[in-house]
Amino acid sequence: MAEPEYDFDLFTIGIGSGGTRASRVAAAHGARVAAAEEHRVGGTCVIRGCVPKKMLVYGAQFAEDLEDCQEFGWTIEGKSFDWVKLRDHVMKDVDRIESIYTDTLDKHDVTLFHERAEITGDHEITLASGKVVTAKYILIATGAWPHVPEFEGSDHCITSNEAFHLDAIPRRVLIAGGGYIANEFAGIFNEFGSKVVIANRSDVILRSYDFSLRDRLMQISMTKGIEFCFHAEFEYVRKNDDGSFAVKMTNHDEREFDCVMVATGRVPNTKGLGLDNVGVELGKKGEIKVDTFSKSSVDYIYAVGDVTDRVQLTPVAIREGQAFADSMFGGVEPYCVDHSCIPSAVFSHPPIASVGLNEREAKDQYGKVAVYQSDFRPMKNVVAGRNERSLIKMICDDANGRILGIHMIGPDSPEIMQAAAVAVKAGMNKADFDATTAIHPTVAEELVLLR
Ligand SMILES: Cc1cc2nc3c(=O)[nH]c(=O)nc-3n(C[C@H](O)[C@H](O)[C@H](O)COP(=O)(O)OP(=O)(O)OC[C@H]3O[C@@H](n4cnc5c(N)ncnc54)[C@H](O)[C@@H]3O)c2cc1C
Ligand SMILES: NC(=O)c1ccc[n+]([C@@H]2O[C@H](COP(=O)([O-])OP(=O)(O)OC[C@H]3O[C@@H](n4cnc5c(N)ncnc54)[C@H](O)[C@@H]3O)[C@@H](O)[C@H]2O)c1
Fold it and tell me: How far, CA to CA in Å, does 130 sit from each of 10, 38, 123, 126, 134?
């Protein structure tokens, strides 16, 4: 029987990190590719995530640097901070990156529909304009969306989506959640002069990170003036006549804030996609269930990135998109992404970075482990009179010295960890680090001097 004719070989829904990579690579392999994006090309990472967030983190760091520089002999007179200038500058750069993404897709002859798409039948996609197209394969790369718990006045709250567009830096901010976004934005607002309160429903922040790093971040954050409220869940947020908000959380007295931000996780974006029209199976959080090759329960429908709720990080979405495109259209033996030992960072002030197992996980899995630690004040902090200590922790299998995890908090830790992650992923031992000569004087040299 002749194969049915489709308009495209691949239709990608969602042009964020995963969708862009998959579409571009599939087209480069010779596939006829179309894609739909309902908002802006680049998705969360480029438009309202990693990229603008990191730019704000850089902007915020100047608050400390301008203070510290005085101990290095500098006098800065009349310093002031202009939020609107930074915000608009960041957004201009976001526009620039969006246009680079669009050009790349264009150059690869990906047909891009700037509108919402929905699956309306077997191999059939209907666009918001009513146009219907067919495709041999469909890739869902629709990402995730902020989860806002239900409570009185939840509509008064912002999420990270809106945080990039504020008219002014709020004087008092409450951030609900104790994860990546809460801690990163707490640092940003605090450096810009806001009074920041983090409210979390448990008493643990950044649950997946090593406890020593979590404790250190909390201690440093509190020294900087960030307040933590634990066992706190929203009862209500009420708007006052002067535009501020009265916020009541469980176990805490009512307090006033000028901005309430919710950062309580992100849920997979699967609503209204028409997945039930074709029988795509979803998990408990609404995520698309996929096998190791990112194939859904429907043979011709695949999914990559946050929508599958495996690991919500940009480089992971990109790798999944690449593996999908190579495997389906690249004429290679199909391969899947290795989700083990993924390095990660929290761009707090100071940042945290980590690869491999934390001490708890290592003990649970390996029983006896050796822990090497360096707790030190970086030279720059000493000269600046900044009483802020860094921490590096290496966890090894006691039986053979293989490194199971490295964890670090302190200036530049994400930059340092990227290189260290290669060694951990490659299964190296502490002895390999010890055999490497230090680069002195650096913070990173602590990694090869651990005792
Ligand atoms: C504030 C913030 C900071 C972050 N910082 C980092 C970081 O520092 N490092 C890191 O690795 N990760 C970070 N992340 C996570 C990272 O952004 C995501 O993991 C990544 O963007 C996921 O990519 P994706 O392709 O799965 O989805 P997305 O990039 O979210 O793309 C999905 C796209 O699909 C579109 N879409 C959805 N439904 C439809 C539809 N029906 N039709 C058409 N289009 C549709 C959306 O508009 C969106 O553009 C951050 C996230 C946030 C929110
Ligand atoms: N640097 C980075 O790589 C980076 C930065 C930002 C976001 N991200 C990705 O985006 C994802 C989403 O970030 P996030 O910070 O929203 O989620 P998260 O999963 O990191 O943290 C969510 C936090 O909210 C708390 N929480 C959940 N429900 C709650 C409720 N009803 N009331 C109060 N607290 C509640 C949880 O206990 C947890 O501490 C992250 O998991 C991460 O994968 C990565």
Answer: 19, 14, 16, 6, 13
Per-residue pLDDT tens digits for 122-158: 999 999 999 999 999 999 999 999 999 999 999 999 9
* CA dist 258 → 172, 178, 195, 238, 251 (Å): 5, 20, 10, 11, 21
What CA–CA distances, in Å, run from 124 to 117, 260, 274, 286, 294?
A: 10, 41, 10, 22, 20
Give the residues across from 238 on adjacent strands: 246
8 Å CB contact between 213 and 393: yes
Q: Please work out whether the CB of residue 17 comes within 6 Å of at least one atom of ligand 2.
A: no
pTM greater than 0.90 (yes/no):
yes
Gyration radius (Cα) of the chain, Å: 24
- State phi, psi for 278 to the nearest 5 degrees: -120, 0
The token duo for 7 is 């308009």
Q: Is the CB of 250 under 6 A from ligand 2?
A: no
Instruction: Select from 11, 23, 111, 142 the residue to mutate for testing ligand 1; criterion: most ligand atoms less than 8 Å from CB.
Output: 142
Q: Which ligand is nearest to the CA of 50?
A: 1
- Residue 25: CB partners within 8 Å, gap ≥ 6? 321, 322, 325, 326, 329, 330
**ipTM > 0.95 for the complex:** yes
Q: Which two tokens stand for residue 327?
A: 């495997």
Closest CA to 419 of 380, 449, 448: 448
Residue nearest ligand 1's atom 52 by CA: 49
